């Protein structure tokens, strides 16, 4: 369980409170420092997956924790950014991204229970969506919107593109799971 990829995933989770505290510090360099912490966390997302494949260190713990860590760091970043950008224009893509992550996580868990997890495995477009989302969030964190509105506009445009890709990949995953979803008898919990 305690291999390098899993340690990197845990590091990503441990960076979340550090990131949030730094973001709220009354300090001139808080934006670039918070963005750097987020960027390091985003890089560990790629690195832990690469190392798990390269070193053949896949574990059930890592398979569980990696997507959780991703969703936690992205959600934390979007929460602090929504406070800074307290507008519908900004809240909308943030809501789309967080909602999609919850829906697809639940879908993957349910499909895994049916033994069909591979039908909703991460695809190439999902990887592009994640990369674009991480870049957009890093840009938005790095720039103080009052001092650098051009970077803020760029980050918001990138976030909207990521939100569109988020919806697109959600449709792909739901279509892949539709035969299972539509064949289940009606029941209520």
3D architecture notes:
The chain has a single domain (4-180), classed as CDP-alcohol phosphotransferase transmembrane (TM) domain (Four Helix Bundle (Hemerythrin (Met), subunit A), Up-down Bundle). It is 80% helix and 0% strand. The two termini are 35 Å apart. It has helices spanning 4-24, 30-54, 60-84, 88-113, 124-142, 149-183. The longest helix is centred in the C-terminal third of the chain and has 35 residues, at 149-183. The model has no long low-confidence stretch (mean pLDDT 90). The protein is an all-alpha fold.
Q: Which keywords apply here?
A:
Four Helix Bundle (Hemerythrin (Met), subunit A), mainly alpha, 6 helices, 0% strand, 189 residues, 80% helix
Provide a compact summary of the structure.
The chain is an all-alpha fold and 189 residues long. Helix content is 80%, strand content 0%.
Which CATH first-tier class would you pick?
A: Mainly Alpha
- Measured by DSSP, the beta-strand proportion falls in under 5%
* H-E string: HHHHHH
Query: What is the overall number of helices?
Result: 6
CATH architecture: Up-down Bundle
How much helical structure, as a percent, in the residues? over 70%
How many domains? The number is 1
The span between the termini is 35 Å
Quote the CATH topology.
Answer: Four Helix Bundle (Hemerythrin (Met), subunit A)
Mean pLDDT: 90
> Major beta sheet, specifics?
none
Total beta-strand segments: 0
Q: Give the structural class.
A: mainly alpha
Mind sketching the topology for me?
Elements: H1 4-24, H2 30-54, H3 60-84, H4 88-113, H5 124-142, H6 149-183
